[in-house]
Amino acid sequence: MSVSSKRRGRQSYLLPSKPRVKSFAAIAGKKEGEGPLRGLFDIVIADDTLGEKSWERAESRMLEDVIRLCLEKKELSPESVDAFLGGDLLNQIVSASFAARQLGVPFLGLYGACSTMAESLLIGSMLIDGGFAQNVVCATCSHFSTAERQYRFPLEMGSVRPPYAQWTVTGAGATALTAEQGYPIAIESLTLGAVVDYNQNDENNMGAAMAPAAADTLRSHLAEMNRGADYYDLIVTGDLGRVGQALFEELCAEHGIELGGRYLDCGSEIFAPEQNLYSGGSGCGCSALVLNGKLLKEMERGERRRMLFMATGALLSPTTTLQGESIPGIAHAVSLEVC
Question: What residue ranges do the domains of the chain occupy?
Fold first, then answer.
């Protein structure tokens, strides 16, 4: 089938072969395991070092472990996987690269900041739909202590956060996709996000930086696929947190998009307000945990038939922040359906 027959508008694509979700797994940190989704994760770690010598090693180990667990659930070996697609928040995506070193699987390293879970699913589905792969694993992770050390302040400083800040999730999620058709959850269509920048330059307010990109991607997806928001049982954003979620809802209303009661933000979902973790969760692991710990299970049970998953990312670095640059946002959309 030609590209023109799959393409819908400028950013969206149908996937006629409907790649399937074969397996999924989630490993969460202690705070995440104490939140509203307690009991839904495969593993909750009590020690955020996992017995390793550094938090960075622990993060890479967590990603390797969740991929192995995802594969073991369907008795898949690393040798049966055509590609591992993933990334993380650290410089040079070392957590994913070192995990790939241990797994010995062909690796495509991705950086979409906190949008990486959706980006990996998007590219993995295209590889399968194009006939280039039979099985791929899409995975990402984040760790509170590694992200804080890289992006903000050493933990030992005990820096005070503004109330609109978010708490980087410690966790990892993996989804195995396959060309086999015997599994109920399919990836039906995709929308590639565009970079959107509203000139927000407060590194603590990443929800505000990402919300415009999420609204832009949703508007593009619905227009190009000729759908209303009510086509989906659930529309999911990655990690806007409570501040970014409110802004997203406001922008959607301006675009004439009626979300109704079918909207969920992973950053608002992962922690309870009484945990006092500011505006909610963030990090690559945020949407990865909610997707692979909660949402795919609901679809597998038939509780949701159609879901649009839009992981969101703030495209900043410590260097650009110090130079006074604004924070561009990105969001990629993956449409999943139960066949």
Answer: 3-178, 185-338
In contact, 86 and 74? CB cutoff 8 Å = no
Average pLDDT over residues 100-114: 97
Q: What is the mean pLDDT of residues 123-128?
A: 98
Cα–Cα dist 298/266, whole Å: 15
Look at the block and give the residue holding tokens 């590209």: 3
Per-position DSSP letters for 302-314, written without gaps between them? TS-SEEEEEEEEE
Question: Do 3-178 and 185-338 show the same overall fold?
Answer: yes
Q: Is the pLDDT of residue 3 over 80?
A: no
**CATH says 185-338 is which class?**
alpha beta
The DSSP output letter for 159 is P
CATH number of the domain located at residue range(s) 3-178 in this protein: 3.40.47.40
Long-range pairs of 46-49 with CB within 8 A, sequence gap ≥ 24 = 48/143, 48/144, 48/145, 48/170
pLDDT at residue 157, as a whole number: 63
Residue 87: enclosing H or E segment and its boundaries? strand 83-87
Task: Assess contact for 173 and 285: CB atoms under 8 A.
Answer: yes
Distance between CA atoms of 240 and 281, rounded to whole angstroms? 8
Amino acid at residue number 23: S
